[in-house]
Amino acid sequence: MRSELQVHRLSSACARTADAGSGFTSHQSRVTSHRVAGLAVAAALALCSVAAALAATQDSSRPLKAADAVRTEVYVSLAPVPQGRTFEIAAVAQVAPGYHVQANKVLEDYLIPLTVTPELPAGFRLLDTTYPKAQLKKFPFAVKPMAVYEGRFIVRMKLAADAGAPAGPVKIPMTLRFQACNSELCLPPARLPLTAEFEVAAAGTRAKSAHPEIFGKQ
């Protein structure tokens, strides 16, 4: 009988394999090292293919793509954002019914934590990122409870627009990285591109609170 925990661990390891495969620096470029690394990566990728095949046979109702397991919208707390002000960006995520995603603070090393990573242009600083409190849930494939997010959740980022932030329209690209699972299997880890779009105005410009249902009164 197939071990569901092994399927979870195998699919979770795929993302870590991709990162490890590109970790050689110039002073490590001996032929032997490259051959060993190449064989290790090839073997791990083969295992990932097996994990994907096992997942497909376990549950034909899963999303066609791992990225389909989470839908996300991005909101900005001020309109416009004046130079010299702090503001917030919220990534509001909705997990597909029957699925969960690993929390930002996972309880097992083989699991992939959820992260939101912004690529800040000049003139902006990330002050803090707040992830929601995880739910501890027990699943049939694991001995211990796991820290997960289900349903709707929000990741909040506090940023500062410096005095020298360029005025005008701004786009901040972000990456949502996660792994979605149901009670029997894990989908491959996914990376979703997100974008926060807003206007930067001159210092002292009056800003209107936006999306109070998410941020409250600013």
Describe the structure.
It is built from 3 helices and 14 strands. It is an alpha+beta fold. The protein has a single domain (63-215), classed as Immunoglobulin-like. A 4-stranded antiparallel beta sheet has the order 1-4-10-7, with no helix packed on it. Strands 3-13-11-6 form a 4-stranded mixed beta sheet, with no helix packed on it. The chain has a 4-stranded antiparallel beta sheet with strand order 8-9-5-12, with no helix packed on it. β8 and β9 (146-149) form a beta hairpin. α1 packs antiparallel against α2 (31-58). The protein starts with a helix and ends with a helix. The model is unreliable at 1-7 and 17-60 (pLDDT under 50).
Kindly summarize this structure in a few lines.
This protein has 218 residues and is of the alpha+beta class. It has 3 helices and 14 strands.
Task: Kindly list the characteristics that best describe this protein.
single chain, 218 residues, alpha+beta, Immunoglobulin-like, four-stranded antiparallel sheet, four-stranded mixed sheet, 3 helices, 14 strands, disordered N terminus
Question: What layout of secondary structure does this protein have?
Answer:
Layout lengths: L3 H17 L10 H28 L11 E7 L1 E2 L1 E2 L3 E10 L4 E3 L12 E4 L5 E7 L4 E3 L8 E4 L2 E10 L6 E11 L1 E2 L8 E12 L6 E2 L2 H4 L3
Parallel strand pairs: 3-13
Antiparallel strand pairs: 1-4, 2-14, 4-10, 5-9, 5-12, 6-11, 7-10, 8-9, 11-13
Helix pairs in contact: 1-2
